[in-house]
Amino acid sequence: MIASALKKDLLNIGVAVIAVALTASAVTMMFLAGSVRLEVDRLAAANSDATQWSLAQTEVDVLALQIALADAVAQGDASALADVRRKFDILYSRVMTATNARQFAELRLEQGAEEALETLRGFLERRVSDFDGPDPALRSVLPEIQDDVEGLREVARSYSLLGVGFFAPSRTKDAKRSLCCWRASAC
After folding, report:
1. What is the mean pLDDT of residues 66-71?
2. Of the candidates 134, 167, 158, 130, the residue with the CA atom closest to the CA atom of residue 145
């Protein structure tokens, strides 16, 4: 009888230990799931930050080209022309990324976005042969390019602001979702 009671007690203790272990495992899994969700949201926010930064850089790159052009007109030396070419290449790359990257696909469907990109691309395509040509040829058209770039400033700015307005609401939703997930995992 004592052996039977001892077996029953050991069985009850075993069941209790298993129940505690399963409960602890479930709580741990819920905590880890919440942590994973927060990390995914953090990474999504970082991607959103990078996207908005890239959009803002379009305007900055136009301004950098404008400054380099003014310096090249004033100085007229080979190093100033090399800087102008470098700034042009950076802007070219940025605009082509905005034109082709998947992360900007929905933005390009927004009213005004494709028109702005078309204006930027039009300038780049029209002027690429000037920037790829010899120094004397580039130097001779710098004032014309300066005029063209002056007109691009507002286009680049409106495109940047359109993108920030487009991506900011999703960023706000991501932040609210992260807060809700954090609250749920903390309780």
Report:
1. 96
2. 130
